Amino acid sequence: DSSLWRSAHKSKINMAFKGEDDLGSLPLPVQRMHLIQVDSVQRWMEDLKFMTDCECMCILQSKPISVEKDEQNELILSSQYSTCDNLQLLLKRAWIISTELTRIAQKLEKNRWQRVHSMTVRVNCHVRSMINEYNTFTRNSSGEMHQFEKLLIDKCSEFTAFTERCVQTEDEQILKSMKSCINETLATVAQYFGQLIELVLTHEAQNLLRQIELSNSVYVTESAISSLFSLTQEGAHLCRIIAKEGGVAALFKICRQDCFRCLYPQTLKTLASICCVEEGMHQLEKVDGILCLADILTDNTHSEATHAEAAAVIAQITSPHLTFTQHLSSFLENMEEIVTALVKLCQEASSGEVFLLASAALANITFFDTMACEILLQLNAMKILLAACSDKHIVDTPYSRDQVVTILANMSVLDQCASEIIQGNGVQLLMEMLFERSSSGNSAEVAACERVQQKSAVTLARLSRDPEVADAAVKLSCIPRLIKLCRSPTERNNSDSVLVACLAALRRLAVMSPDGLEDSDFQQLVKPRLVDSFLLCTNMEESFV
């Protein structure tokens, strides 16, 4: 039985590569006697682990065991996965090749010719395998792609031949003269490889978008969108390719068809990923994407999941970290509707994730227009957000608290905000946020905790211009906590931004309540220039006695 044969020999090959044969415990003379008695295939596999040759591996990898046509087709079909799986395999192989090319350049600089040659052979193997694997699952690749495949394979072969000659010579002058030629060949290989990958990814993006645009089947469309989303997770470059090929327009077309309502959450999630790049934002503006998002958010017949993913797109396109803001003109036209819908989503959120997405969108909106803060005040958003913070099932992570305190900090520039904070017991919440610490030690969570501490101190500093807020902060012992954060680097996780914010808040409270500080604290943290107090605190060493 051929399948049993393959299974048995596969296990033996695995043993040979892992060095887990059953001879390891025998004395060396007994091992040799044993090897003489076994058949030639077994002997070859024993030797293989000591003399592995990448070119042999390449040949074995590229050819099926069976030579019969039907069995060959069966073998190829049995290894087929979904488009998404195949693309992941391709991207993984591409990443390996890219890494190997970088390492070859490094070894070439050090004149380590043996390593350069072995790595070149390995790249040759990976390139051939990648092309072979891709051609097994793609059906309509272009002539241009085949041309680049041939160019890349030929150049890899040439590269391998060059490095082989370098290994075989010891003449330093010859090696020196060949080095520049090898560098040029390496650069050409990298260029052809990059162009081929670009063509392949563009081709696959086009195929997926064609499925999305032409199919009336929910199942086919869902599969294509899922594969497209997986591509967006591979980095900004792929998002640019998808945007240039019309991905944003195709996805918004889905969001405008009632027959695909069940696909709205996944579609919007994919859109949020594509809109992390400028090309995606330009496309969103061209197809009136913001108006579509506003319609979805204000339509009460949509599911909470759909509203949450629409909020995620809003959060993405309003991110203060983005340098391109051409889309904001059309956003301002729909801002009141969007903000109202987002506040409602925060109020009615059934989970922490939904609240996080909605509050993140609101937090970003408050950065670029003060009108948003005024709309939030009119909608009693402060009361809604403060109430949500008391529900540990809704505001359950530092990330959610970061969004809430961002909104509070941006709203605190308005004079009317102080009374809202007092009524909603907001000063107590800000005091609690000064104690924010990470429970997991995860770097992203630690950074979120730092932002919560910093923004709560900033909010206190801004609000404490109101005597009533300052008095509430003093009564809640905010001053001792601010002093602790200034003097103890570990309390603020050595964050300079937290230190500056705490010094500012402390100085504002000291003006309103000078009796709350000891003389040493006043002399060191309040009286000097801010920069001098900052330098004093950053140079402090904690005592562990």
From TrEMBL:
- Domain named Protein inscuteable homologue LGN-binding is located at 36-80
Annotated GO molecular function terms are: cytoskeletal anchor activity
**InterPro entries with a match to the protein in the record:** ARM-like (IPR011989), ARM-type_fold (IPR016024), Armadillo (IPR000225), Insc_C (IPR045789), INSC_LBD (IPR031938), INSC_LBD_sf (IPR038205), Inscuteable (IPR039921)
**Which BP terms does GO give this entry?**
apical protein localization; asymmetric cell division; establishment of mitotic spindle orientation; regulation of asymmetric cell division
Q: Which domain of life is it from?
A: Eukaryota
Q: Where is the Protein inscuteable homologue C-terminal domain?
A: 93-545
The residues forming the signal peptide are: none
Q: Extract one GO cellular component term from the record.
A: apical cortex
| Family annotation (Pfam families) | Insc_C (PF19427), INSC_LBD (PF16748)
User: What is this protein's record name?
Assistant: INSC protein
